[in-house]
Amino acid sequence: MPDHRIETVHRGEALTVTVNGTPVQAFRGESVHAVLLAAGYLSLRRSRRLKEPRGFFCGMGICYECLVTIDGRPDQRACMRPVEPGMEIRIDVGDV
Amino acid sequence: MSATCDVAIIGAGPAGLSAADMLAGRGVDVRLLDENDHAGGQLMRHPPAGSSGAGPYLFDGPRRRGFRLMARLAHRGVAILQGVQVLGIFPENRLLVNRADGRVLEMAARCIVCASGARERFIPFPGWTLPGVIAAGAAQILLKTSGMLPAATTLVGGTGPLPLLLARQLVAHGGRVKALLNHSPPPAVSHALRMLPRHAGKLAEGAWLTASLALAGVPIHFNRRIVEATGRGRLEAVTVARVDRQGGVVRGSLEKIQADGLAVGFGFTPNIELLQQAGCEAVYRADRGGWVVRTDRRLETSVADLFAAGEVTGIAGGVKSFIEGRLCGLSILDRLGMAAKAAASAAERRRLLRQRDHELTFGALVNRLCRVPAHWVAAIPDDTLICRCEDVRMGDLRQRLGQGFDTPGALKKATRCGMGICQGRICGGIVADILDALAADQALYRRQSPSIRSPVKPVLLGALAAMERLHPENPLQ
Q1: Between chain A and chain B, how many beta carbons pairs sit less than 8 Å apart?
Q2: Of B133, B213, B221, B396, whose CB has the highest number of CB atoms within 10 Å?
Q3: Does B388 sit within 8 Å of A6, measured CB to CB?
Q4: Above 50 in pLDDT, residue B31?
Q5: More reliable by pLDDT, B371 or B341
Q6: pTM for this structure?
Q7: Looking at the DSSP assignment, which residues form a beta bridge with residue B161?
Q8: Domain shared by B162 and B245, yes or no
Q9: Average of per-residue pLDDT values in chain A
Q10: Strand order across the beta sheet in which B224-230 lies
Q11: Which helix (H) or strand (E) holds B327?
């Protein structure tokens, strides 16, 4: 599966995080959202009333659609957090 | 870190950085508070050290100017606090701050500059909440900071210059762009073309982008619009339709385009919630992107010692933000009694104000390009979600509007539209457009700016309860 990373971009140090316990490769400087997108996680949660799948939308910390649990802290905006080695990311409703 | 300083600047984008540059050069104790993990705002988004990023950028003069500014501030050792949210501004210039580590504390400054920038506007359509449908700006951020494409195949749509720029950037980085759907209304496009002599440089950029996109084989449609996004759990296809000269959908012209990404943008609106919470007067200016803060020519708001710079005074782009940051800096030097020779400072101010007026004229032209016609908004189907946080549909709003709930506040109480975790930042502008299109008395809701209360961003109650106060005997009101 293509991971959407642009080939010509020189990336930072490779590192590993986990998504719902599964190891996922990432590169320093990428946002948590970018790492999730590259690994194929599009649906990040369900909407409050209708329980519809939702994912990353505004990309700049405004819409709160990309909330995930990071290292045990719930409701973190995936678009606003740079990825760190060993980060444990949890998605309540995954679609992969 | 001391909890008091001369000047607290909220937002380290073009405006905030320029203000800091002006003040720090004169020895003023400045502190920049920024919500992102890197300074630079949206304009100077960049990959981290050690990676190359998805360059080169097009027409990036303002961006390069911003990087020079950031280097100068770093050299001077100006404090930029990242990952910090300002939750409220209170009397006696006190700020309630949520730090990156989750601790909430009070700070105070002799003057405050609010340079909190802008966010995108949207026109909803059925399926716009499906994973895979993203903001045009979000796609650009993915490119700029993470060197990543938003999807294998992307359709780009919306109004104004951003979708055009994004489509060109995606193609330049090997992305597949199915088509660009330009929804800017033809009268606004003709108006922009008539202004060509005055803004030749920027309009030429648009022409160059359009031409190079066409040369790359990307279809550009001015007479087709997004009708619906569909897919099982994620975006799979976008239905588009031809529009007639009045902007109405031509019956029988529906066409389904397969794509796993749809990037949409309909212009920008100022982030003025913090200023509204502080009690600053705001005014609705469609030509400036929506609700903007009212300031005098010194960029001071109606609240003493609280200044505003950049997109919060009206959407006009990065260059105006640099100018207003400097203007703000001059005004505050005056206020602190640290201004250079009065004559020199007055001449500089006049020059900056002239440049600002020119940028505002161009901004008005772009903001007009970004507005879709009212009948488009009026025709949003009933099952379309308007408030993403609380799952409020167009039909809910239409029904309540018919019952006389015809202000944003009344609609919010009746339907919960705007009551969710984003605090109405996404649906607020949409509701204003809906009222424009459907309310009996359009002037009614424009008389009073929406009431905003602290905390203007979500915060844990436990963190608020453990707040570190400046004066424990005199708590925040």
Answers
A1: 146
A2: B133
A3: no
A4: yes
A5: B371
A6: 0.95
A7: none
A8: yes
A9: 92
A10: B224-230, B237-242, B255-258
A11: helix B318-335
Domain boundary, last residue among B315, B343, B366: B366
Query: Is B149 within 8 Å of A80 when comparing Cβ atoms?
Result: no
In a domain? residue B472:
no
Other beta carbons within 10 angstroms of residue B346's beta carbon come to: 12
- The residues facing A73 across adjacent strands are A70
**In the structure encoding, which two tokens stand for residue B335, read together?**
């206020």
3-state secondary structure of B120: strand
Is B281 an 8 Å CB contact of chain A?
no
The C-alpha atoms of residue B201 and residue B208 are separated, in whole angstroms, by 11
Best to test chain A binding among B51, B122, B143, B146 (most A CBs inside 10 Å) = B146
| Total residue length of chain B | 477
Which of B228, B244, B265 delimits the end of a domain?
A: B265
Does the distance separating the beta carbons of B47 and A9 come in below 8 Å? yes
Residue B467 lies inside a defined structural domain of this protein: no
DSSP bridge partners of B451: none
Sequence letter at residue B161: P
Q: What is the pLDDT, as a whole number, of residue B202?
A: 81
d(CA B273, CA B265): 21
B53 vs A59: CB contact, 8 Å cut-off?
no
Between residues B346 and B301, the one the model is more confident about: B301
Protein fold of A14-90:
Ubiquitin-like (UB roll) (3.10.20)
| pLDDT for residue A95 is more than 50 | no
